[in-house]
Amino acid sequence: MFGKNTKVDLELNRIVEQLIKTGGKEKILPIVQAGEPVLRQQTIAYTGQLSKHTLLKLIDTMHTTMLEAPGVGLAATQIGLGLALAVVEDHVRDDEDDPREIAEFPFHVIINPSYTPASDKTASFFEGCLSFDGYQAVRKRWLDITAEWDDEDGKRHKEQLHGWPARIFQHETDHLSGELYIDRAEIRSLTTTENLEDYWCNDPVPTEAAEELGFAL
């Protein structure tokens, strides 16, 4: 359990309380954009630095902010906080033939997350980021991972993730080590979200066009 062998960091707790207040009654925080130093920092492991009351308020505010954006994940660094904490959530689409292998991914709080590949299989799809707003690019990621994390009660979890949930987990975990998806994306595939919807949305893996553009899928 968090807090069993650690004390609340009163100064950090105060800073987080002030951050939460900036979200107002709507509980929506501004999302920092690429170029902000916090997005490139290694986060500090969460060991109980916040009171349980403040932690739960922070989680609730991050969840609301993520859904409003809208997004399927939000790391603490994206609201300017250097703690190893993120929230994730996504749901099955109507299109059952989606090649991204989207699966139900209920709301999770992932604290001190890490992952390792569970196979040598990879998948490449367009990916976006709330902190690189308005753009998407093809990013290769592990198709299967072993994910580990602590929940808000300090309980450790270990789970095999596949397909789109695995991609979401990798994306948010990478945030907490100072990485953005664009760092390892196929740069020639970079497109505005508007152009992605106009030219690519009916074919998430446009292999022939991708070869013409010069990036591998």
Automatic annotation (TrEMBL):
Fe cation binds at C129, H171, H175. One of its GO terms (biological process) is translation. It is an enzyme of class 3 (hydrolase). GO terms for molecular function: metal ion binding; peptide deformylase activity. It comes from the Bacteria. The keyword Iron applies. This is Peptide deformylase. It comes from Bifidobacterium myosotis. The gene is def.
